Amino acid sequence: MCAILGVHSFGKINKQHIKDANRAIKILKHRGPDYQGIYTASNFIMAHGKLAIQSNDALSNQPVELDNVVVAFNGEIYNYIELINTYKIEGANFDGDVIAFLYKEFGMDFLSLIEGDFAISIYDKRLEKLYLVRDRLGVKQLVYTMKNGEFYFASEVKALEAFTEVRLDPNKDKIFEDLTMWFWSDKRETYFQGVFHLQPGEYLEISDGSVKHHKYWDVSLGNESLPSINPLEMIQKSVKSRLVGNYPAMTLLSGGLDSSLLTVLVSKLLTKVKSITVNYDDFDNNIDRKFADLVVKSNSSIVQITNHIKSSDVNKSRLDSLSKQMEEVIWDKVYFAMQANYQLAKRNGYRVVINGQGADETWLGYYHDFPMYKFTESKDFEVNNLMSVLADTNIGGVKNLSKQGIDTLRDGVLKVYHNDLPSKKDDVLNSVAYWATKTYLQSNLMQEDRLSMMSSVECRTPFTNHKLVELAFSLSGNAKVVNSVEKKPLKEAAMGVLPIELIDRQKQAFVNPEDSYGDLVINDWTTIVNEFLYKNGFSKYFSEEYIASIVRGNISNSLKWKFAAVNSFLHVYENQGDKIHE
After folding, report:
1. What is the model's pLDDT at position 348?
2. Residue 409 and residue 177 in contact, taking contact as beta carbons nearer than 8 Å
């Protein structure tokens, strides 16, 4: 994983642009500590920060220039050696060279040839066009904004702060939208006004002051009752491709089906594999550890490392730090454990971590966790019903919202309805899976990207292999959930690979620590309430009756945490645009 950023000016690049770009790439040094390169032309700048995994050879430095094509990208093209051989690409050393060659030969049609996880920037000097591409499932991140006739992009929002023309103002409507919709909200907007995520399977074409969106891949829903290929074969291939590079890989082992299956498959390809399992103070919160231990005991090639998270680790200082690095509200205390996992990987000398994200959204693993999986008819997806279900789940019901709160929630649900649901919703379960892939998965992948990159570690997710996802969606929903057993094809594929007790285990989301882990953050409720409702202005979204309940503290600890987390995000990002340009 690396960092990319750039500017496309519809006028001329000046000294200030260059100064700002040099500052911006330094802000992203955690993503690319090994080399920072900048390419400057009359009307564009492209910068790259390298985290060396394939090689630290200078030949792998970016940006790459080939005739009139300049390329910088973040990620991995897993089939680049095959492409070099197939198209007899002379002088190509690494995947950046391959991208430049393929674009020259095929234009943007080259995207159908590459397999991997990537965010790519391509500048065609002949056409004076900039192209930005994001991989099919959205593993790699890319954000962009336009200011005063200039287009800016970067791997992380915080890099945009360095540009004189860019100001980062928090998007409070988006924050409230996620408070009421959680990870099920549309992902086009970031938490900053006018800054957007490039969408998975999409590329932008920027020229002459215009930005055009092109969709080059999307999930299509099928109705096969049985898979035409054993998912295990595809998972094995996906795992093998994600072990490439000169640095060894370790895994995260939560004790769930997905991480356990990946860990065992990695162990069959390596002599030894180190795996990290989280442990909390309270035994009741360590149910995952019990199942992780089963996997380790059944396989001598797995070396388990326990990552103990103490309640004192969850404090206001670390919450502010996470808010800054993540560029979003820290809705969930589990982020603290996730960050610690990648820190531990780095301390053990690893730059690559295999992670199980992606299976639950595509294979219906969350079937028992969220009410929308119990929808039975296409009419259940109507806007008013979605509003009701989401508000009931996350904020206690629409009744707790003011008119402005209801209107903002409705706007958020309408975005989901138009952007994140399939046009035909006859297969209700697969429609929810599609929604989850477009929203919930994007939240999880963004979190893994930010948390791993904080420690200069690359997170690789075999279950987001687009061919494996296509297989998942070629099946009907009823083929993936059978007699209320979620992820049935994956559980069958794991037979003989994993202990039967683990396979039969009902899916459980990554366990949060007990409530006491939030005490150091929510102990001063009066201050939190005054900041959240009045200083930060969120009282406008709630009914007077509910505001009274909030003030009295008659709400769940989960909501108390979320309100404190909103305050933290706004604390570290309010007026950041002013501060960095002083």
Report:
1. 95
2. yes
What radius of gyration, in Å, describes the C-alpha atoms of the chain? 23
Phi-psi region of 337 (alpha: psi -120 to 50; beta: other; left: phi over 0): alpha
Q: Longest C-alpha distance within the chain, in Å?
A: 70
pLDDT at res. 203? 98
Instruction: Give just the sign of the alpha carbon dihedral 286, 340, 185, 357.
Output: negative
Over 50: is that where the pLDDT of 582 sits?
A: no
pLDDT-based confidence at 509, cuts 50/70/90?
low
Three-state DSSP at 71 gives strand
Helix-strand-coil split of the chain, %, nearest 5? 45, 20, 35
Q: Which residue from 350, 428, 454 is spatially nearest to 30, judged by alpha carbons?
A: 454
Residue 308, classed as helix, strand or coil, is strand
CA 198 from chain centre, in angstroms, equals: 12
Contacting residues for 192 by C-beta, under 8 A, at least 6 apart = 157, 168, 169, 170, 171, 327, 573
Q: Residue 48 and residue 70: Cα distance in Å, rounded? A: 12
Give all domains of the chain, ordered by start, each with its CATH number: 3-166 (3.60.20.10), 231-363+455-465+483-503 (3.40.50.620), 515-580 (no CATH)
Q: Report the pLDDT averaged over residues 409-433.
A: 97
Is the whole model's pTM more than 0.85, yes or no?
Answer: yes
Q: At what angle do helices 172-181 and 557-573 cross, to 10 degrees?
A: 160
Measure the CA–CA gap between 358 and 136, rounded to whole angstroms: 12
Structure tokens at 110: 């080259």
DSSP SS3 for 37: strand
Q: Is residue 225 pLDDT above 90, yes or no?
A: no
Alpha helices in 349-382 (DSSP H): 359-363
**Burial, 532: exposed, middle or buried (Cβ in 10 Å; 0-12, 13-18, 19+)?**
buried
Residue with tokens 């997710």: 461
Cβ-Cβ contacts under 8 Å for 462 (sequence gap 6 or more): 235, 238, 239, 242, 262, 354, 358, 468
What residues contact residue 80 under an 8 Å CB cut-off, 6+ apart? 92, 94, 95, 98, 114, 116
As a residue count, the chain comes to: 582
pLDDT score, position 420: 98
- Give the CB-side neighbour count of residue 378, counting CA atoms within 13 A: 7
Give me 241's structure tokens: 């491709």
**d(Cα 95, Cα 76) in Å, to the nearest integer?**
7
Does residue 2 contact residue 50 with C-beta atoms inside 8 Å? yes
What pLDDT is stored for residue 60 in this prediction? Answer: 84
Nearest by Cα to 136 from 468, 530, 502, 576: 468
424 compared with 230, residue with greater pLDDT = 424
Query: HSE on the CB side for 178, CA within 13 Å?
Result: 23
Closest CA to 63 of 41, 46, 43, 44: 46
Q: Is 397 left (phi over 0), alpha (psi -120 to 50) or beta?
A: left
Q: Say whether the peptide bond before residue 231 is cis (omega within 30 degrees of 0).
A: no
Strand residues in 243-390 grouped as ranges (E) = 249-252, 273-279, 302-308, 352-354
